[in-house]
Amino acid sequence: MVRSNKEVITEHKERLLMSIVSYKGYEICPIPLPIASRQWDTTIYIMVRREDGSKGKKFTGQQTFTRREESIQSCIDWGKKIIDGEVPYYSVADL
Fold it and tell me: Does 58 reside within a domain?
């Protein structure tokens, strides 16, 4: 049975919330989603909260991992690099 991303996120919501990392005024939320062959992707949501509301942006990387925990750590590290401006073509400058 193939489940939608929404179903997977709903099932793992509590663990996902525990994985949120604050970094330089942003929040990095790893959202590793299962893909074919028991692999996890590197999807993240980076958000910033301001007085006028919250804004966020979803990023999906090319790397995959066999263990969910490895994917979560990679998502966090990658999110920090995006925030620091170290990843070409990925930016949070518009948030």
Answer: yes
